[in-house]
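Revision sheet: structure tokens.
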Amino acid sequence: MVKGQPGPGVPHEFQNYLPYRYAFGANEQNPLEMDLAEPIAFIQMLRQMEVRLINISCCSPYYNPHFQRPAIYPPSDGYQPPEDPLIGVARQIQTVRQLKAACADSIFVGSGYTYLQEYLPQVAQATVREGWTDFVGVGRLVLSYWQMPADTLAGRGMAEKRICRTFSDCTTAPRGGLISGCYPLDPYYRERPENVVLKQKKATLRKSLPVREMP
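Predicted:
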């Protein structure tokens, strides 16, 4: 018997809600599967309105955090991911690739690359070179290492100690009423009083987690 995080996230039963028409870009008969027909139609409509720049986010973090932020360490107040985070990164890259192929005149910004850490620049370069996306957006990584894009483009070595390791404190803190920031890696946030409060909240949360048997 060990204390630890609850098990992997399990989707709610949806059989009684089919056809499921409440999600955007989902298969009505199986909302766990994507159907890009609707997003493609929407992007084409935007193109007719001269809206060309499109950022493809992963989804809402309030429903599926492992989709929104593939991470080694999931949010302390969340569930364990039901898949290897690399699967989520690949899914996002392939989704943007399909949208770009269907809407070649639109300009796409890909998301979800932070989990790749040291390998982010190489994968980003490859996806842009192959025409799978036009840009790669960097989100939570810039909280700890905002110079990474400049260092990469200048051919400088990477500051490895500042690379986001996906600890997820930047998202756990706001849900606890604290400011968002990279508490583990950024000295500014690490020395703030909020860091003490965050650690206390996480410790309290760990104590409240159910005891489960080892598989």
